[in-house]
Design goal:
alpha+beta, 14 helices, single chain, 5-stranded mixed sheet, 35% helix
């Protein structure tokens, strides 16, 4: 552990839901749930207005609907989330280059690695960062913890959540940690917590009573030794400035099992274009193409093929993935499909059997998919030739209901159209102009 509180953990509050409330004025102050909207979906993020009803991440959407039926249930807009995340991470890198992103909405920051860091001004530094994030992202809030270790910074960021700050003064780590439930220690999930409860260990203070050898006998070598150290706030892990991307993938869970091979091949092509776009955006290419399939009985298989050279070409990725599907029995239907690329490199070998036409294909179909979506889902951005920008309120029975508003307007009117109305198309609702 360090002698000063210089490690910051920043966590954007209810991130996906907050972005949706920011961009949809009529949802501000209302419960919003983002995730899979079908009967097999799960909750990705719930706004704090929904959490008071017991809705939480990873809960089945069906259960979330039962707990909070008046919530707005929206599909994800990951381009919007990635853009907001990029803005936040760029602001953090203005403070120091030693940033360890954990996800789109969460990162460790080594403030001590920044130029001229003054430990006596930690609260001022944090206040400036949070104010800038709110200004740059259009009002998104972040909860922050600062401490002498990653363990305590992560725990501290939860103490005054949402939109709060907690600084753990050096030397007080054990006192802050002691009264907390043992589940605050990373690695203490429900199963481990139950084993600890059976021997009378409920709090972190309780966890300090057994010797390391006793915890090893109870939980195993790795977990026992780790918990013995963590319970005493003994954590010297550094903030890692970069985390290598090992793969890029896209997957989707279907509302109904799909057994039509042509339909699945069409989905594969769309996913291949998405993966290709992400590879190119990050200056990467890959050699190993993987197809992930979950069958009707939840049995999950992956099939992989390694190319002779790394590529970011959508046509090659799609052709390879379709070939992997060709050997599979899908007569009973697939409930999930995914396409991924691994074996990443920061260079592309010009493929000897790829033509210029192959590269052109990456852009052209993408325009068609964006202009005429095959499925309207709640929350997606749309544009109407006469009414302007808005988002899908609901759809079904050949109709689409749209609320016309953006983050810069007051709550707007609602209109219903035929699903194939030529004046209605997908849009980004200003998402990228943050």
């Amino acid at each position: 552990m360090r002698s000063v509180a210089s490690i910051m953990h920043l966590d954007l509050d209810a991130f996906f839901a907050s972005v949706e409330q920011r961009d949809k004025p009529s949802l501000r102050g209302r419960p919003v749930i983002v995730g899979g909207i079908g009967p097999r979906g799960v909750v990705a993020t719930a706004s704090y207005e929904a959490r008071v009803h017991g809705v939480r991440s990873a809960m089945r959407t069906a259960e979330a609907r039962a707990r909070c039926p008046h919530a707005a249930f929206l599909g994800g807009r990951f381009d919007a989330y990635r853009e907001a995340s990029r803005i936040v991470m760029e602001r953090l890198r203005e403070e120091t280059e030693v940033i360890e992103p954990l996800s789109l909405d969460e990162a460790f920051v080594d403030l001590g690695a920044g130029p001229g860091f003054d430990p006596d001004r930690v609260e001022d530094i944090v206040a400036a960062i949070r104010a800038d994030i709110a200004d740059l992202t259009g009002g998104l809030t972040a909860s922050v913890g600062v401490a002498s270790s990653k363990l305590m910074a992560k725990i501290a960021s939860e103490i005054n959540k949402p939109d709060g700050v907690f600084v753990v003064e050096p030397g007080t780590e054990a006192d802050v940690l002691g009264p907390m439930q043992a589940t605050v220690i990373p690695g203490v999930g429900p199963a481990t917590a139950e084993r600890l409860r059976r021997v009378g260990i409920l709090t972190v203070e309780d966890l300090r009573s057994p010797s390391e050898a006793e915890l090893v006998r109870l939980l195993g070598q790795s977990s026992g030794r780790s918990l013995h150290r963590m319970a005493r706030a003994d954590d010297d892990r550094p903030v890692m400035a970069s985390r290598e991307t090992k793969s890029v993938s896209v997957e989707d869970t279907f509302e109904q099992d799909i057994s039509d091979r042509l339909q699945l091949e069409t989905i594969i092509e769309r996913m291949a274009r998405s993966v290709s776009g992400r590879l190119r955006k990050n200056g990467l290419s890959g050699r190993t193409v993987t197809l992930k399939m979950r069958h009707h009985d939840f049995e999950t298989h992956t099939r992989s093929s390694t190319l002779p050279n790394p590529t970011d070409n959508a046509r090659i990725l799609a052709t390879t993935a379709r070939g992997l599907l060709a050997g599979e029995d899908i007569s009973n239907g697939l409930r999930l499909l995914g396409v991924g690329v691994s074996g990443l490199a920061d260079w592309v070998q010009d493929d000897l059997f790829a033509s210029d036409e192959d590269d052109d294909v990456d852009d052209e179909p993408e325009q068609e998919v964006v202009a005429r979506p095959t499925r309207w889902y709640p929350g997606m951005d749309v544009h109407h030739a006469d009414h302007g920008d808005g988002w899908v309120w609901g759809s079904g029975l050949g109709r689409v209901t749209v609320r016309f508003e953006t983050r810069w307007t007051p709550p707007g009117p609602v209109h219903t159209f035929l699903a194939d109305d030529p004046a209605l198309g997908a849009g980004h609702n200003g998402t990228f102009d943050v």
